[in-house]
Amino acid sequence: MISYRGVQKVHRAIACIIKLSGADKMANLANARNKVLEAARAGASLIVLPECFNSPYGTQYFPKYAETLLPSPPTQDQSPSYHALSALAAEAKAYLVGGSIPELEPTTKKYYNTSLVFSPTGALIGTHRKTHLFDIDIPGKIRFKESEVLTPGEKLTTVELPEYGTIGLAICYDIRFPEAAMIAARRGAFLLVYPGAFNLTTGPLHWSLLGRARANDNQVYVAMCSPARDMSATYHAWGHSLVANPSAELLTEAGESEEIVYAELNSESIENTRKGIPIYTQRRFDLYPDVSAGRDN
Ligand SMILES: O=C(O)CCC(=O)C(=O)O
């Protein structure tokens, strides 16, 4: 078993930003900058932006807004979001999970929904390409097929934050797959971060349930960060950015409008939760060594 490495007690360790994302990419980046700097001024050392924070959300928008992730130094013209996020993390002197952006891989010409993580010096320290694409069809309510445009990523992601420990990173629909969250926790993550954009059908049903469930399964913190709701957009985001603690209580939850929510994380909370209800060490891995071995398709 990989044990939890510990996170120092830090004032306002995490800030989740819920923000409106309109059609103007540069305006979205400018809005993100204001909000990230506001969170940093309030003492946040890890700041999270929402899924597709630099564009409207929808398969029809991915190709238009997609950027190629060039090796550093990225140029303003070719990778404006990469460049802006890197500079912003350095300006804020904070870790920055840059929500997600549509990515174009230039060789294969494939599109991905990709999250970039930057250190307080602006270095890119992690990337995650959404591994489970949001393909659902609930008659009369919502149909969405990311796979019409996007390709799924092929790896699960953890990122090392040297002062604090490991975080697990995944995007929105990925949260429905508890296996991925558990693998991150078993790799020692103290926090699972999900930029996401649920909707008015599945948001009220499952958003906070899933955040609390992944926290409860793994006795870790969970942060979910959504765009604000815009009823004039083609996709109506649920909003409600939140942070759950290792006992699956909500420490904070936003509404549907632009807002920043803050939470303080500490290692004792993980340790005490695991001491009190010791499922973390009681798991019978001998009975379920490989869940995927039982699949029939
Ligand atoms: O799982 C859901 O209900 C919503 C997922 C979603 O909106 C997404 O993956 O972008």
Describe this protein's structure:
- The structure is a single chain.
- It contains seven helices and 15 strands.
- It is globular, with a radius of gyration of 18 Å.
- The protein has helices at 25-41, 62-65, 80-92, 178-186, 202-218, 267-276, 279-282, and strands spanning 14-18, 46-48, 95-97, 101-105, 110-118, 124-129, 135-138, 142-145, 157-161, 165-169, 189-195, 221-225, 242-244, 250-253, 259-263.
- It has 297 residues and is α/β, with parallel strands linked by helices.
- Strands 1, 2, 3, 4, 5, 6 and 15 form a seven-stranded mixed β-sheet that branches.
- The chain binds 2-oxoglutaric acid (AKG).
- Belongs to the carbon-nitrogen hydrolase superfamily. NIT1/NIT2 family.
- Residues 10-267 form the CN hydrolase domain.
- InterPro entries: C-N_Hydrolase, C-N_Hydrolase_sf, Nit1/2_C-N_Hydrolase, UPF0012_CS.
Concise structural overview:
This protein is of the alpha/beta class.
**How much beta, percentage-wise?**
15-25%
Overall geometry? globular
Question: What is the typical, i.e. mean, pLDDT?
Answer: 90
Radius of gyration: 18 Å
Number of domains: 1
**What quaternary form is this?**
single chain
CATH class: Alpha Beta
How many helices? 7
How many strand elements? 15
